[in-house]
Amino acid sequence: xxxxxxxxxxxxxxxxxxxxxxxxxxxxxxxxxxxxxxxxxxxxxxxxxxxxxxxxxxxxxxxxxxxxxxxxxxxxxxxxxxxxxxxxxxxxxxxxxxxxxxxxxxxxxxxxxxxxxxxxxxxxxxxxxxxxxxxxxxxxxxxxxxxxxxxxxxxxxxxxxxxxxxxxxxxxxxxxxxxxxxxxxxxxxxxxxxxxxxxxxxxxxxxxxxxxxxxxxxxxxxxxxxxxxxxxxxxxxxxxxxxxxxxxxxxxxxxxxxxxxxxxxxxxxxxxxxxxxxxxxxxxxxxxxxxxxxxxxxxxxxxxxxxxxxxxxxxxxxxxxxxxxxxxxxxxxxxxxxxxxxxxxxxxxxxxxxxxxxxxxxxxxxxxxxxxxxxxxxxx
Length: 380
Hints:
By secondary structure, this protein is α+β, with helices and mostly antiparallel strands. Helix content is 24%, strand content 29%. Strand 16 (323-329) and strand 17 (336-342) form a beta hairpin. It starts with 35 loop residues before the first helix and ends in a 7-residue tail after the last helix. The relative contact order is 0.16.
């Protein structure tokens, strides 16, 4: 199983995948930071009562953020905040394991950090490579730590990054093939000599959804049909001030149709059966991580549905998926079809696409497979 997936899922909701609005927690007032020594002792007292408890779940039970929990760890060092330079320097360390998660889905990919592009004026960046493929929303990255922690199998080392609420946005783990000297040099170069106090903001209240009757549904549909790129979708949501899942519900069943929540299972099984390469997108408040390639080994462990392939793991908390949607977006290369999974609050958890790169059109086999397994009356 994953470094992050545990037998009991966290119910803490992270924020929707970025793309519509900036993180409001960045400018929110901070709450009172707990005493690090007292928090550390509370954490250590909790561990024996729940063996295998992950930091994310421990933080929830202790009433703090995960960032605050790491800040109290004696073997954590605060990272300076030049995130773009740090990510670029990872190219020198060799293979690592990159992990991104929301509260219901975890994705892990092992390989080298290859091409890195940072756009400081936009607070964004990307990592593009055969193994590690990331879209970085660096304006949401507010704190980071280099951590050494003992485990039953030895010392585990990682770089962990958090948003303004103290929610993890991305993690990088050292693996056996990582260049130890380059890893240590990177940490020395990017750690604060004397770290400032950690600032964590409480989550703001959710923004109320606009009533359906205030939305020009005909204009929304017209704009949807006029999309030329899948990225136009974010602008469409902003333009009509409509929540993502609300847009799917209103636009019409030929463009977006609700299907069985467990449809992802059938999709993964058929993709494996046909050796069909896919693109799987998992997002946190500050990062989207992408797997491109086949799916091989599927396994259910407790409440988790898993892909357990060499150098690629995906763990999905089945109870977290409340809705799944078949979505069609027009582009200059033709219609792009996806399966999207949401939780009960409307947070996007997972997107599944057929493999396509650049100006390539969608595979007819992918489209036919999605149409088949989402046909009314077929789903089990």
